[in-house]
Specification:
mainly alpha
């Protein structure tokens, strides 16, 4: 085996998974099922409305931001399946009779690309949403948006 230890590989996959899932928790449930897309779209709309509550944001601004974020989450959804494939491939590679460092590196690199693509797409969506608002609205929106709790963590 090369310089990559199993702990290093698993830590890299975990870091990539965390980065790739920024903003994605509502697409997958703990039991492996997925949330109804229409229901998820409504959740985004409610979250935007809550984040802009108490500001002078117009209905048009709220609608624009909701559309931007809904499109971003729709674009990120296919990456979730790719991440699942990478996890399965990594597990198979690590459980194989002979460890292939090149295969493991290939899977790790694919996972990091997904993390980077996810981060870029979500950052673009947040930037686009921020550009719809004036400075005061933007500060209120992002303060409330980042304070959002996803519920109790399991595990």
């Amino acid at each position: 085996m090369t310089n990559l230890s199993i702990k290093t590989v698993m830590a890299a996959l975990l870091a990539g998974s965390l980065a790739a899932t920024a903003g994605m928790p509502a697409f997958a449930r703990a039991d492996g099922g997925s949330v109804d897309p229409a229901r998820f779209q409504e959740r985004i709309e409610k979250r935007v409305d809550k984040a802009l509550n108490g500001t002078d944001a117009t209905q048009d601004q709220k609608k624009q931001i909701t559309g931007i974020l809904q499109a971003a989450f729709a674009d990120l959804k296919p990456l979730h399946a790719q991440r699942a494939e990478n996890r399965a491939a990594m597990r198979a590679a690590l459980e194989a009779p002979t460890i292939d460092p090149a295969k493991i590196e290939q899977i790790r690199a694919a996972e990091m690309k997904i993390a980077d693509d996810s981060s870029k797409r979500f950052t673009k969506a947040l930037t686009d949403a921020g550009n719809v608002l004036n400075a005061n609205q933007r500060q209120a929106f992002f303060k409330t948006w980042s304070d959002h709790k996803h519920g109790p963590r399991k595990g």
